[in-house]
Design goal:
This protein is an alpha/beta fold and 112 residues long. It is globular, with a radius of gyration of 13 Å.
């Protein structure tokens, strides 16, 4: 990761769960699909930020163990994924964009 690039933190459980595509049958595979779909954005950019950007996918529960790939680093939450997202943003020391539909999580990271 490079400090001069924006850090895009994706709340995997929340994003995967926002699409009713049968993700509940195989959370691990659904998270892998999300990870793979994110990879091109590391170079092209996302959320109004030109690439390259650093992409970090926070996983939890049944998705723990999903490995990172080129362009997408994966962090497994030891407990609650939301708390891990907050910890990542707090420690980042640079501009962060958090991708989530969780209003409470958005409020927590916006304060940081």
């Amino acid at each position: 990761m490079t400090v001069d690039r924006p850090l895009v933190v994706v709340d995997a459980a929340n994003v995967v769960g926002s699409v009713p595509d049968g993700w509940w049958r195989d959370r691990f595979a659904a998270t892998e699909r999300l990870r793979d779909a994110l990879a091109p954005f590391a170079e092209s950019g996302v959320a109004g930020h030109r690439g390259p950007v650093d992409l970090l996918l926070v996983v939890e529960g049944a998705a723990r163990g999903v490995p990172g790939i080129a362009g997408v680093r994966v962090v497994a939450a030891e407990a609650e994924g939301d708390d891990t997202v907050v910890d990542v943003v707090r420690a980042a020391g640079r501009h962060c964009v958090v991708v989530t539909a969780d209003r409470r999580l958005r409020e927590r990271v916006t304060r940081l």
